[in-house]
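Collaborator request, handled under Task 6.
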Amino acid sequence: QQSVSISEFQELIRQMYLERDTARGVDGTFMWLIEEMGELASALRDGSHEDKMEEFADVLAWLTTIANAVNVDLTEAVLLKYGSGCPGCGQRVCRCPDAEKP
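Structure tokens returned to the collaborator:
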């Protein structure tokens, strides 16, 4: 099975959609993300495994599109926030109290 890194996926989405997404703007693109989140919520409730896979992929693609539009490197962002463990407790396996986020 093939794998793809976050940076490879971000570059793929950039190549496929950046021109169109830039023209649409961040606000319009964000609305598409929200629509896809609604479709994911429906798939989580009532969808097949294939439906869930498709909607997770769509949400990830639209999120990545917005990151591209605002020049955020997702690999850098993920490593900065989660690269040393949980942002709350600093552990690799979160030990934060259940009442707290994350």
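The cover message to the collaborator said: "The first helix runs from residue 6 to 46. The chain has a mean pLDDT of 95. Please let us know whether this matches your experimental observations."
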